[in-house]
Amino acid sequence: MQVPNEGHVAALAFPFGTHATPLLTLVRRLSASAPNLKFSFINTSKSNQKVFSKIKPNDYQNIKPFNVDDGVPEGHVFSGDPLEAVELFLRAMPENFKNGLEGAVAETGAKITCLLTDAFFWFGADMGAEMGVPWVAFWTAAPCSISVHMYTDVVRNTLKGKEENGDETLDFIPGMSAIRAKDLPAGIVHGKLEAPFNIMVHKMGQTLPRATALAINSFEEINPTITNDLKSKLKMVLNIGPFDLAWPPKSFSDESGCIPWLDNHDKASVAYLSFGSLLTPQPNELIALAEALETQRVPFLWSFRDSSKLQLLEGFLERTSTLGKVVPWTPQLQVLEHPSVGVFITHAGWNSVSESIARGVPMICRPFFADQGLNSRLVEEVWKIGVSVEGGNFTKSATTKALELVFSSGKGGEMRENIGNLKQKAKIAVGSDGSSTKNFTSLVKVVAGCENA
Ligand code: U2F
């Protein structure tokens, strides 16, 4: 493929959760395939610092970070509500990004030729049209969750008055018959429909048909019916993942010594626990989880990000010092790759689910918010590669039951077999002739402005 000598791609990042990191990975993949193009990465200063600190300057030579206003007024005192920073940022949009784009054009001296945004940013459609350039939206989660946002109005109309117990299924949407109303993210039929975040994702679903392309960090074979349905509704749907298989990080750091610790354990014997980048379960759930691990004598490696809550586990930590290891952060990809890991206890954030699939580790899911309920349901009911904790939250008995199911029952064996098959499909998708590889080539053409090349 001939890539033009000129071109300036502006990438607009959502600076919360695990959104900016996969977007930067995508930008790095694109810049490696189209080294003639310039890339501007437009994000808040805090998030830019975080995501760029993880990579070496050599790895982003033609990518320039630009900082935008995070919307936090000077001297603002946060109340402790995790959504507050998000809502302040949403209020500053899209003006902050318009300023960021102007800054990127002024500093590089190159006009924008392609707008690549987190799919949340529905205003990319108008921005792209005004600039006369393609708008490429990037969805960091699964095809299933984007489908739900595309069908929000249909779901609302169909479930009106029936959503009470949440057991109504979405069998009126292709590929979604296993999904129940209660698995849906807040903002579709329950929760505050008028909350700024929920308005944003609703608008996203309505605007995506205007996108030149939608790129997804997944692979087609994982949900072919949903992918085909999305293809019938959008101009171009390009599953280009799983990223961590298609473009694995070159190095990793293991400051807490997780890998040597895992080396000293038997095959598939360890439970790995992590709840992603945003949350820590409530104290009663933490205690129930700890009690189940201790009683079952399951060796565990726990990524425990909020050290202020560690005191809740006092006593447990001392009693289990030879059974388990609690660390502030792990090299998760390498941990999941390790043969000693037998189960992943997760909040079912998409990156975690996808990384676990790509490494063949069955899951125990305890979803909290957003797409996590959908992902858990797919894990348990559709792919049959794990289980959700009974009753929806960690109690000692529900966690014990889930551990027994994965470690000691025939069902656990089936889960391992199913996830092994899915892992194979993921590997094929990112192979030289695979669907994700072909889709990525199409994406490079769109971004480089030579889609007919
Ligand atoms: C939001 O998800 P989170 O950021 O909370 O969680 P994940 O999507 O699972 O991503 C967590 C990432 O952090 C890494 C891990 C994942 O790539 O490998 N990590 C690590 O390297 N070491 C650790 O000790 C712990 C984690 C949101 F909450 C979800 O609902 C969405 O699905 C998701 C994607 O949009 O963003």
Automatic annotation (TrEMBL):
Any one GO molecular function term? quercetin 3-O-glucosyltransferase activity
Under InterPro entries, the record lists: UDP_glucos_trans, UDP_glycos_trans_CS
User: Does the entry feature the keyword Transferase, yes or no?
Assistant: yes
Gene3D superfamilies, A to Z: Glycogen Phosphorylase B
Keywords, alphabetical: Flavonoid biosynthesis, Glycoprotein, Glycosyltransferase, Signal, Transferase
Enzyme Commission numbers on file: 2.4.1.-
Q: What's a GO biological-process term for it?
A: positive regulation of anthocyanin biosynthetic process
This protein's pathway reads: Pigment biosynthesis; anthocyanin biosynthesis
Describe the reaction catalysed, as an equation.
peonidin + UDP-alpha-D-galactose = peonidin 3-O-beta-D-galactoside + UDP; cyanidin + UDP-alpha-D-glucose = cyanidin 3-O-beta-D-glucoside + UDP + H(+); an anthocyanidin + UDP-alpha-D-galactose = an anthocyanidin 3-O-beta-D-galactoside + UDP; delphinidin + UDP-alpha-D-galactose = delphinidin 3-O-beta-D-galactoside + UDP + H(+)
Can you tell which superkingdom this protein's organism belongs to? Eukaryota
One Pfam family here: UDPGT
**Oligomeric state and partners?**
Monomer.
The record, for PANTHER family, names: GLUCOSYL/GLUCURONOSYL TRANSFERASES, UDP-GLYCOSYLTRANSFERASE 74E1-RELATED
Question: What family is reported?
Answer: Belongs to the UDP-glycosyltransferase family.
Q: What is this protein called?
A: Glycosyltransferase
Q: Which organism is it from?
A: Rhododendron griersonianum
